[in-house]
């Protein structure tokens, strides 16, 4: 039997997927706690994940575009942000391993296809969060740079509060939405699948990327809290100065009246 090449393409969106709503809008799929799985007409399949990613397995471009149009019709405010692809080479008797970024495997069972799909989806979603955090980091760096040059912060505390809230929200999403530390249920039942899952995570460098995001978000939050403290001190200083000037004016007026 000759080998076969499988293609996985992930599309990540800025918004999360309400899976129950999608399953109702796109009948025919299998709804599970964290995904909906659809068999596409003719050939191929798609996995939809709650964290806002769709992974197409061996789907033609026309099939992919049709389903994405149906998803956008059900969720009109979706914003597509990231696409990522991955290739699996299925060869009977082949030893499981990577070569030039391609996963070689003896048999791609439905459970193994689902495991590949979820890791590719996580990687695409991770790239979205990396872009988001890089933007937060650049904006925080600009504030800190102004503080370094002028020794003060002119931004309003309410603006800084909103910025801190944005950073905390992003951190919570990274921690809770991607489920990067949770293995799919199928993995626990198949030692070979467990090894494939770990190899895929290593290939996509998910653990290090996840930890890097956590560290950046902690750094952003700590920097913003410091900037906020400086902004508060500046407001207190201005308030104290205003009170002192009012007292001085009152004294001058009292002397002038005499």
Describe the model.
By secondary structure, this protein is an alpha+beta fold. It is built from 7 helices and 8 strands; from the N terminus they run βαββββαβββααααα. It has an 8-stranded mixed sheet, with helices on both faces. Helix 3 runs parallel beside helix 6 and helix 4 packs antiparallel against helix 7. 28% of the residues are buried.
- Could you say what the CATH architecture of the largest domain is? 2-Layer Sandwich
Percent in strands: 15-25%
Low-confidence blocks of residues: 236-241
Gyration radius, in Å:
26 Å
Largest sheet: 8 strands, mixed
CATH class of the largest domain: Alpha Beta
CATH homologous superfamily placement of the largest domain: TATA-Binding Protein
Number of helices: 7
The SS-based structural class is alpha+beta
Identify the overall geometry. Answer: elongated
Tell me roughly what share of residues is in helical segments.
55-70%
Number of domains: 2
What's the N-to-C terminus distance? 110 Å
How is the CATH topology of the largest domain named?
A: TATA-Binding Protein
**Oligomer classification:** single chain
């Amino acid at each position: 039997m000759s080998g076969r090449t499988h293609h996985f393409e992930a599309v990540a969106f800025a918004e999360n997927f309400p899976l129950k709503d999608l399953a109702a809008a796109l009948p025919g799929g299998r709804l599970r706690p964290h995904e909906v799985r659809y068999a596409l007409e003719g050939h191929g399949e798609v996995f939809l994940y709650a964290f806002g990613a769709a992974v197409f397995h061996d789907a033609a471009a026309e099939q992919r575009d049709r389903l994405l149009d149906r998803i956008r019709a059900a969720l009109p405010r979706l914003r597509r942000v990231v696409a990522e692809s991955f290739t699996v080479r299925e060869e009977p008797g082949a030893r499981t391993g990577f070569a030039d970024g391609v996963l070689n495997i003896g048999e791609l069972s439905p459970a193994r296809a689902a495991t590949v799909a979820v890791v590719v989806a996580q990687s695409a979603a991770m790239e979205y969060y990396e872009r988001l955090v890089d933007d937060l980091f650049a904006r925080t760096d600009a504030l800190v740079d102004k503080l370094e040059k002028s020794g003060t912060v002119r931004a309003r505390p309410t603006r800084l509060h909103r910025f801190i809230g944005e950073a905390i929200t992003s951190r919570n999403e990274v921690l809770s939405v991607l489920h990067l530390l949770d293995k799919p249920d199928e993995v626990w039942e198949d030692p070979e699948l467990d090894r494939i899952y770990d190899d895929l995570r290593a290939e996509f460098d998910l653990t290090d990327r996840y930890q890097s995001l956590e560290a950046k978000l902690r750094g952003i939050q700590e920097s913003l809290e410091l900037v906020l403290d400086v902004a508060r001190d500046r407001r207190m200083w201005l308030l104290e100065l205003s009170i002192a000037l009012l007292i001085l004016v009152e004294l001058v007026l009292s002397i002038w009246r005499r």
